[in-house]
């Protein structure tokens, strides 16, 4: 049940960020929920593979390359979902950073309520 709430909160964050960032578009609330689900799947399946393949670069950049990996995950979601569009990798990077921040904020607010 907790993961459903996290997905819905991620979908809300996607809608908010799409309204704030001019380089990100989402066609509606259903598309935002689909984006949240696809991002969760991509982070579960693709991200570990990318982290292993780019481990030397990640070590050399002291972990900063993980931000690029997150942006690539966002661009992959853009590729797979028709109702979600990100203009370029820079907007994907900004979207990824802000989405992570909002998810952390919402998670901390939820954990305080319990």
Automatic annotation (TrEMBL):
Keywords of the record: Membrane, Transmembrane, Transmembrane helix
InterPro entries, A to Z: Phage_holin_4_2
Segments passing through the bilayer: 28-46, 53-77, 89-110
Pfam families: Phage_holin_4_2 (PF04020)
Origin: domain of life: Bacteria
PANTHER family membership: SLR0284 PROTEIN (PTHR37309:SF1)
Protein name: Phage holin family protein
Organism lineage: Bacteria, Pseudomonadati, Bacteroidota, Flavobacteriia, Flavobacteriales
